[in-house]
Design a protein that fits this description.
Layout (H helix, E strand, L loop, with lengths): L20 H8 L6 E4 L6 H8 L4 E6 L2 H10 L7 E5 L5 H8 L4 E7 L4 H4 L26 H5 L4 H12 L4 H13 L6 H12 L11 H12 L1 H15 E11 L2 H17 L2 E3 L9 H6 L7 E7 L2
Parallel strand pairs: 1-2, 1-4, 2-3, 4-5
Antiparallel strand pairs: 5-7, 6-7
Length: 305
């Protein structure tokens, strides 16, 4: 399991190092006549690496319009070799259909919250900074966390926290959140974190912040992340040419488990071959440079003709 404080790629906008970039380039093996999809373009680090390695064209998708604008600025020098699309990665089939792109040579998805989102207190992802109860990766769609928590039942919330956060004290945390919500005490991310910490107690404080697991669970809930992964994977493979590859980077066990089981089932059915039988993880040097990379797991499959 990872945490909302260890996210999908970026140390900072000025010091942008996409996770496992060299490995992604090696596995996707970009060609000048090839078209590739970066389904979670973020600030454009992986796309830049693919273009620099010779990819003919990259279609960059992101549901965060701000991230897309930053990527567009960063990659301006590549001209029409990169296209930018504001959309959810799970809608990759519809995006390609609108563009008249029948198939592609490779697809990459870097799941989870980006550092651009995490480091912006106004987005409400971090329990370390004062911010609104939002957590939407696309602020133009869906209900913010504040609205989701309004009127939520304790049983339903406990299930969310237990399932998506693997929090053993899920019932106590849910009860405390509902009580705080009823009394109007959930005014910010730091207020929510304080409620969670009191409910969990201090036993896990030396290892991880007690708010960690619940914040992860709430973020997954708000953004329907696991359903997104499950919808994206078959759409991505369907978009590949025979011999094309799908690479995914997951940052917590729930996403990685979904990818692993899906890839293994497809391999057993003969639809893909497993390029990585075990997940590829960052080396010691990369982890030392970028602490948020520590929980990253890269898996790759190749579409069978």
């Amino acid at each position: 399991m990872t945490t909302p404080e260890r996210s999908r790629s970026l140390a900072s906008e000025a010091e942008h190092e996409p996770v496992l970039a060299a490995e992604v380039v090696s596995f996707l093996a970009p060609r000048p006549d090839g078209v590739y999809v970066d389904a979670t373009i973020g600030l454009g680090g992986h796309t830049a690496a693919l273009l620099d390695a010779g990819a003919g064209r990259v279609i960059g998708i992101d549901r965060d319009a701000l991230a897309l604008d930053r990527a567009r600025s960063r990659l301006a020098g590549h001209g029409d070799r990169v296209a930018f699309v504001h959309a959810d990665y799970r809608d990759v089939a519809e995006v390609l259909a609108r563009m008249g792109q029948a198939s592609v040579n490779g697809v990459l998805a870097d799941f989870g919250v980006s550092s651009l989102q995490l480091d912006d207190a106004g987005r409400g992802f971090s329990f370390r900074q004062e911010g609104p109860l939002d957590m939407r990766m696309d602020p133009s769609r869906g209900a913010a966390l504040k609205d989701r928590l309004a009127g939520v039942e304790e049983d339903a919330l406990a299930t969310v926290i237990r399932t998506y956060g693997e929090e053993r004290q899920a019932r106590r945390v849910a009860r405390a959140i509902v009580r705080a919500q009823t009394h109007g005490a959930l005014t910010s991310t730091t207020a929510l974190a304080a409620v969670i910490r009191r409910a969990v107690g201090s036993r896990t404080w030396q290892r991880i912040d007690p708010a960690t697991r619940t914040f992860q669970a709430l973020r997954i809930w708000v953004n329907d992340e696991l359903a997104g992964v499950e919808a994206f994977l078959p759409a991505a493979v369907a978009a590949l040419v025979p011999g094309g590859r799908l690479a995914t980077i997951a940052f917590h066990s729930l996403e990685d488990r979904a990818v692993k089981h899906t890839f293994r089932r497809w391999a057993a059915e003969g639809a893909v071959t497993l390029v990585t039988r075990r997940p590829v993880v960052p080396g010691d040097a990369e982890q030392a440079r970028n602490a948020r990379s520590r929980s990253a797991k890269l898996r790759v499959v190749e579409k069978v003709a």
